[in-house]
Write a structure and sequence with these properties.
alpha/beta, 7 helices, about 30% helix, about 20% strand
């Protein structure tokens, strides 16, 4: 127990060792007790626990845990790519853009869709966790979503977001990191002070909306594990966590973003249609309807 140090992978005995955490730091409380600050390996949760509640996890268990997580998000990746391919094939067969069934078809030469290219929505992802940001940027790359990433502590996101929006001019903004209900205040779900970082996400959303006020101009995903869902939506988020105050997966923001980025601007998506592509589902993610950000370009360049 006393050998636990920053960087170790541990689980909490009090909660049945259901989630694995990385120890970020050790602090001494006012009572002289050593407490570990923990961040989830696969969920966007920051927590604290006394050392006696922690169990160091052997390498083989950590490998198994990571393997199970890879299987979960790999399934989501496959579903997304299959859906995208089906939509592309349907478009090619119709010879017109999805959602244009009632309009005059485009007059195109050659094979329907030939010479056209896709321009998906551009993403600015601001994350309080550098490791999660790197994973999400890799996921965006795999899914062919143009994305820029900035690592900023949750407390600094509100003061920097306007400057970053002007610099990157994205179509979609992600404000995330870690969150969680504070143990001593967890009975007050409506009080922003009951959460570690919800108030910082709320402030960042409000700051973003002063510059880009409408959802159709800028779609915003905000929040992390157990975040104050209602406050985030009220502040102007398009999608947020967590309706049931549950933990959300590190990749859930990516899967929400992908559906918006790769849906045509002529189609309005219902939130349930977007949430079904996430790992956590509607207990962890919710939002409002939004127009897609995908545009078609023509012609493709010869170079």
């Amino acid at each position: 127990m006393n050998n636990i140090k920053p960087g170790d992978i541990v689980a909490r005995k009090k909660y049945g060792k259901d989630i694995f955490f990385k120890v970020k730091s050790l602090i001494i409380t006012d009572t002289g007790e050593t407490t570990a600050i923990l961040r989830g390996l696969d969920v966007r949760l920051v927590a604290d626990a006394p050392l006696e509640d922690l169990e160091l996890q052997p390498a083989e268990k950590v490998l198994h845990y990571r393997h199970c997580d890879i299987q979960k998000h790999s399934l989501c990746f496959r579903r997304i790519l299959q859906r995208r391919e089906a939509e592309r094939e349907a478009f090619m067969l119709r010879g017109e853009r999805p959602g244009r069934e009632e309009r005059e078809p485009d007059k195109r030469e050659g094979i329907p869709g030939e010479g056209f290219f896709e321009v998906p929505g551009r993403v600015l992802h601001i994350d309080g966790d550098e490791e999660y940001l790197d994973k999400c940027l890799h996921a965006y790359e795999q899914l062919k979503i143009p994305a820029q990433g900035v690592c900023l502590p949750e407390e600094q996101q509100a003061s920097k977001v306007e400057e970053l929006l002007k610099e990157y001019t994205p179509d979609i903004l992600v404000l995330t990191g870690h969150d969680g209900l504070l143990r001593e205040k967890s009975s007050s779900y409506t009080d922003l002070d009951s959460y570690r970082h919800s108030k910082h996400f709320v402030a960042a959303v409000r700051a973003a909306r002063t510059l880009r006020p409408t959802h159709d101009d800028l779609a915003i995903f905000a929040g992390a594990c157990q975040s104050h869902y209602e406050a985030l939506l009220k502040a102007g988020a398009t999608f947020a966590s967590s309706p049931r105050r549950v933990l959300i997966h590190a990749y859930d923001p990516v899967f929400v973003v992908e559906r918006i980025a790769y849906t045509t601007i002529e189609k309005t998506l219902g939130p349930a249609d977007i949430i079904k592509d996430t790992i956590t589902g509607n207990e962890g993610i919710g939002g409002i309807e939004i127009k897609g950000k995908l545009r078609l370009g023509y012609p493709t360049s010869s170079y």
